[in-house]
Amino acid sequence: MPRSLRIQYSGAYYHVMARGNRREAIFHDDDDRRFFLHTLGQACEQTGWRVHAWVLMGNHYHLFIQTPEPNLVAGMSWLQNTLTRRYNVRHRKWGRLFGDRYKAVLVEGEDRYHYQTLMDYIHLNPVRARLVKPRDGQSVLDYPWSSLAGGHALPPRRRAKWLDTEAALKAFDLPDSLAGRRKMVERVDARANQEALKSCGVPALPEGMDARCSHLRRGWYWGTQAFAEKLRHHVEGILRAEKAPKSRAYKHSPQARAHGLEEAETYVREGLAAAGLQEAELSALKGADARKVLLARLVWKKTTADQEWIAKRLSMGSATNVSQQIRRLEKKAGKVDKVPEALKQYIEAHEQS
């Protein structure tokens, strides 16, 4: 059976969910959870994603993200593959970490009701799982692995840069102040105390609504009927474009390439110029050449290009070598000698952008 089409467009909102293979745990301790958040932050840096909410449970996770570029598939591929590789190295395992294909429900994020309900649904996951017991006086803040306790309730200097607390508070007409953040927590705690634990935070569907189509956890979209029609028109346009004949020039044009590879190619060309290197010189240089390694790390951190592409483009031998060289550079805190100052300045400017 063919997989359903992933709908991608600039500014799209998604509720993303993924479970462990055979529903087994993907988080065994707090270090696993910290690794996840660190990797998510790297994915956001590469893709430009904005995260509005997240929660880490024992064998699954939930994300509420916005993609300024149409790059959900590329970003999720990098995120889940990187998480799997790091998990297997840390726990000395091999094979799949995640089970079936991750689920991504399109969300009408500009609509206040649908934004608010998804935020609450995610933050109340620990309540439904009995990890937070409001009847015993516990608060949602007692579960540290959600974007409420681990982000929105914190002062700005202690939050991850990729977490969009400003949008989250604005959706509830709250200021980013101590009082505003406290009200946000109190409102979620009130729901936890007032609603049945099993369905806490789960919105009731309007009469006649088909949950297989519109639901924040089971359907293919979460929004109004008008939003669904807009998505259908978007899909029809994609299908028409796929059926339309394309010239040889179009197939090889920049518009037909993945956004991440376009960015990666730009970094390589500009970086080589800053390093004073010609394309023809790359194959003669060692795979551990400091100039190559600096460029490889920049491309790896800031784009969705994989390490095989980087190895081939920079003549670094193999993806394994790229990975090893980047790790060695990280241990040195990015400090290298005998590298042109222009290249250092180029790398620094773009890694901090």
Brief sketch in words of this structure:
The chain is an alpha+beta fold.
Number of extended strands: 5
Task: Give a quick account of the main beta sheet: strands, pairing sense, barrel closure.
Answer: 5 strands, mixed
Distance between the termini: 43 Å
Q: What percent of residues are in strands?
A: 5-15%
Number of helices: 14
Let me know the average pLDDT.
87
Number of domains: 2
CATH topology (fold) name of the largest domain: Alpha-Beta Plaits
- Look at the structure and name the CATH superfamily of the largest domain: Transposase IS200-like
Gyration radius (Cα, Å) is 22 Å
**Shape call:** globular
Q: So, CATH architecture of the largest domain?
A: 2-Layer Sandwich
